[in-house]
Specification:
globular
């Protein structure tokens, strides 16, 4: 198909003719193929709220079908864009040059749970929360827990190397992938398995795939490591008078040799938004709230939570309490997981960036972000994983041209200050489409060149998920921040 975007005319993607669509329908027996405009629009967006219409949507039910669709599309030079639940916050599953959206939501079987080896084999469309529920009767769990875990899929978690509150103690998605079955852009399929342990010769390939955002291949099966469920958990809630106290508490906790399971933060704006929705009697004058969870054996949890409570009081928190009931704990963490949607409802436009700063510079970063918002006359809210310095900073805008212009400048300034502090432009949301122009700021042009060589070796001509992660010549029309258009 000749691209609907002039900037991409040099790619010469071919028109989807009826015979090609019929061929795809024949391949995807038992699956689904959508081609009507109303159907296509349902697959045109992700959590960024940007939208690009595909020309065809295909929902296969097997790895063989995925491989056959990829091969057929490659023969016609039609791009293929993998898609899970589309909870991505950087535009990863958007079909910016049309072509085929390959949705993996029908490949949603949990193929095996092995309590002895503490592992599971799943298809990519399995929802993270469904996997958690399935392994819970075996007293096991899958540690990566992004806030979208109730809807996001394992395939998408792998594509973005998702994290979540528990990643502080246990690690992110890459730390729990033991093997992958992958369909590469030429239609070749490789299974690095086997179930239960990691074969080192394929470990480099697994490392390439996790976090590659659908640009190197499509995961059709995942071999995952599980952990024993902690026997006890305890949550400490601390209200801070100043932003500086947040940094002090984090510093003191780690200086004491403690590693909580979760160490989450929300600033005063976020606290008020949560309180508006959940009526939790939070201190609306406070500067910040810390949610800290410890887990393990009962005695260890009791001792660790008491130490953390003492640290919070020593630093000068205005209120400290330990959640004693399952209901109380669940409400706190439910409110934290729903903070993103709560923030979204508070503005016409929410531009969300996930950034990382060194733990020791967390308070400094938060102060600079607050000043950045004031300088550009924008509402700013920050929350996230304080334990590893991963912040979700959102600019909240009216649908106003001047605010959009200020936000565009503020986003660039945000990334520059993060890098100046020794941080990273992305913590767990990937690069996708929204951060392509900032990647080189962090890695340098030589870093981008090296990564692009890997992409081009496995995905020549960008036939799979084109225009993601890297700036491409002539793509300025798309690589502008569409969220602010």
């Amino acid at each position: 198909m000749a691209s609907r975007y002039p900037a991409f005319a040099d790619r010469s993607f071919m028109t989807l003719n009826p015979s090609f669509t019929q061929k795809i329908r024949g391949i995807v027996s038992g699956g689904k193929v959508f081609s009507e405009p109303g159907e296509l629009s349902c697959y045109s967006y992700d959590a960024t709220r940007m939208s690009f219409l595909p020309d065809l949507v295909v929902e296969p039910v097997s790895a063989g079908q995925v491989a056959d669709v990829v091969r057929a599309a490659r023969q016609e030079r039609i791009p293929v864009v993998p898609r899970g639940a589309a909870t991505c916050a950087t535009g990863g599953p958007l079909p910016v040059s049309g072509g085929i959206v390959l949705s993996l939501t029908l490949m949603n079987r949990i193929l095996e749970i092995n309590p002895d080896s503490r592992s599971a084999v799943v298809e990519p469309g399995v929802v993270n929360g469904d996997l958690q529920a399935a392994v819970e009767p075996y007293a096991l769990y899958f540690p990566p827990d992004p806030s979208s875990f109730r809807v996001s899929t394992i395939g998408g978690n792998i594509a973005e190397c998702a994290g979540g509150p528990r990643c502080l103690k246990y690690g992110v998605t890459k730390d729990f992938v033991q093997g992958l079955e992958v369909v590469f852009p030429d239609g070749c399929m490789v299974d690095t398995g086997p179930h239960g342990f990691l074969r080192w010769p394929e470990s480099a390939l697994i490392g390439l795939m996790v976090g590659s955002e659908g640009t190197l291949g499509i995961v059709t099966k995942a071999y995952l490591k599980l952990l024993p469920m902690p026997t006890t958990t305890r949550s400490v809630v601390a209200t801070m008078r100043t932003i500086g106290q947040v940094g002090e508490v984090v510093y003191e906790i780690f200086s004491a040799g403690l590693v909580p399971a979760k160490l989450e933060f929300m600033d005063g704006v976020a606290m008020r938004l949560v309180d508006d929705v959940y009526k939790m009697d939070l201190d609306r004058e406070a500067a910040a709230l810390l949610l800290i969870e410890t887990d393990g054996d009962p005695q260890g949890v009791e001792e660790e939570s008491a130490q953390i409570e003492a640290i919070c009081r020593k630093v000068g928190a205005s209120r400290v309490q330990i959640a004693r009931s399952v209901h109380e704990t669940g409400l706190l963490w439910r409110a934290r997981s729903m903070l993103g949607p709560s923030v979204s409802r508070s503005a016409d436009i929410k531009v969300n960036e996930d950034i990382v700063v060194p733990r020791g510079r967390l308070a400094e970063a938060l102060q600079l972000i607050e000043e950045l918002g004031q300088r550009h006359h924008l509402r700013v809210v920050s929350y996230g994983h304080a334990g590893d310095g991963n912040l979700h900073t959102s600019f909240l805008l009216d649908n106003d041209a001047e605010q959009k212009r200020q936000a565009e400048a503020a986003i660039s300034e945000l990334f520059r200050l993060v890098l100046r502090l020794g941080g990273s432009v992305s913590g767990e949301h990937g690069i996708g489409l929204t951060k392509v122009k900032y990647l080189a700021w962090e890695t340098g042009e030589s870093g981008v060149t090296a990564m692009r060589k890997v992409r081009d070796a496995l995905n020549p001509g960008m036939s799979m998920n084109p225009y993601k992660i890297f700036m491409e010549p002539g793509a300025d029309a798309i690589q502008r921040d569409q969220r602010l258009m």
